[in-house]
Amino acid sequence: MDIIISKEERIGSAATERENSDEMGRDRDLLSRFMSSSADLEFRDREAERKFLRDIIISFVLAGKDSTSTALTWFFWLIAAHPSCEREILKEISSAPASTTSEVKIFSYDELKSLHYLHAAVTESMRLFPPVPINSRLTVDEDVLPDGTRVGKRWFADYSAYAMGRSEKVWGPDCREFKPERWMGDGDGDGDGDHQNVRFRPSDQWKYPVFHSGPRMCLGKEMAYVQMKSVAAAVMAESEVLPAVDGGESARRMADPPYTLSWLLKMRGGLPDL
């Protein structure tokens, strides 16, 4: 809140803020951009506007920063333990058209969309290690869920994307195995075709709630995929990631992964390399 107030003082009084929206828009920091975008909105008072700005920026940072890096950490940890998957990704990256500079291969948005196996590998990684492992909702009034379960007013309703991703009832007997192929389809739905001819095949959204589902679907889902695939493709095209911690190649390691539970499902100690 102190930062918001300081920003207001820098750009002028409340009366001139509306006139200086162009000036706010020229500033490149996140707060200035949100202040410019919300300049035409009506609030009860200045305090309400400040709380709105505070909440939306904190949500933006929490949802768009640490969650992406957390997902990539587990992705590289899993890929290092599955060389056959790594080879498939490298084959796809090397055959995909891209703009090449003297230093690195750069993929455009359309080029990233063509990397179906990489998309499947990132999705499979988040099935096993969702960045947000548990989600909570607070009921505003009494209700009855579709299966007949009654919930009372101000009850917490929690679900675990982590537990669902490792549920044999949901994903079958190989639920704890890292298998990007389960997301690939060649038209008949069995996912056993040549990867050059198959495409990513999404599951039912309620089966895979990593980005929530229904009207609460994460607004940043597509942006998150673009960011993760951009980083993964750029890193794997130029380097080999060799984690100093054991990868997820064994059933024992997958049953007891090195995670630490906070707001996000982070790797204990990060991902040190060799």
Helix content: 40-55%
Rg result: 22 Å
The rounded distance between the terminal residues' Cα atoms is: 42 Å
Task: Please tell me the CATH architecture of one domain by its name.
Answer: Orthogonal Bundle
Characterize the main sheet.
Answer: 2 strands, antiparallel
**CATH topology assignment of one domain:** Cytochrome p450
Instruction: Work out the helix count.
Output: 12
* Number of E strands: 10
Query: N-to-C SSE series?
Result: HHHHHHEEHHEEEEHHEEHHEE
Summed over residues and divided by their number, the pLDDT gives a mean of 84
Kindly name the structural category. Answer: mainly alpha
The low-confidence runs, each spanning 5 or more residues with pLDDT under 50, are 187-193
Q: What coarse outline follows from CA principal-axis ratios?
A: globular
Q: How would you describe this structure to a colleague?
A:
With 274 residues, this protein is mainly alpha-helical. The protein has a domain at 66-130 and 161-267: Cytochrome P450 (Cytochrome p450). The chain has twelve helices and ten strands. The protein has helices at residues 2-11, 14-19, 21-26, 30-37, 46-80, 83-95, 109-113, 116-128, 161-165, 168-171, 221-238, 251-255; strands spanning 99-100, 105-106, 134-138, 143-144, 150-151, 156-160, 184-185, 199-200, 259-261, 265-267. The strands form five sheets. A two-stranded antiparallel ribbon has the order 1-2. α5 (46-80) packs across α8 (116-128). It starts with a helix and ends in a 7-residue tail after the last strand.
